[in-house]
Amino acid sequence: MPLCEILPDGSQNHMRTLAIDPTTSGFGFVVLEGSKRLVDWGLGCLAKPDDALYQQRIEKILDRAQPQLLVLEDMRDSRRGDRAVTWAQIAARCAKKRGIQVKRISRPEVTRHFASSGKTRWEIGVAISRRFPELAPSLPKKRRIWESEDRRMAIFAAASFALTFLRAA
Q1: Quick one: average pLDDT of 81-95?
Q2: Domain architecture of the chain: domains with CATH
Q3: Residue 131 CB: number of other CB atoms within 10 A?
């Protein structure tokens, strides 16, 4: 699937990509047009883990974003918990039901893509916030080793999956 197609009138139609990173309390997401235009981003938070509610939230964002492509983490060799794996499967199922193509990107692929920017998730987040300055206010401070990861990092994880896939496409 091309990132951009030239329409008969000579204008460009950029593919709309939604990337989602499930977390223990919801998900982070970004919506891109092509690889250079950030359209939307945010967190979907759930008060309690509930697969049905999660599915409703995913369907709502799919309806709102109208993507041609959904990018998720490839969790086959991941240490992610069962909930994240289940919620990624739910998102993929919802997208496929709508005819949306689903692609998966592994964390090692993301690390290779952003190798010049650093290897930690936070360093990758800094690189993404430089590319999309509108995300800079959402980038949390670098966490200390004893601190839990800030949930806003899911936005940057989702962006890293999308940008890694779009570069490889």
Answers
A1: 93
A2: 4-168 (3.30.420.10)
A3: 14
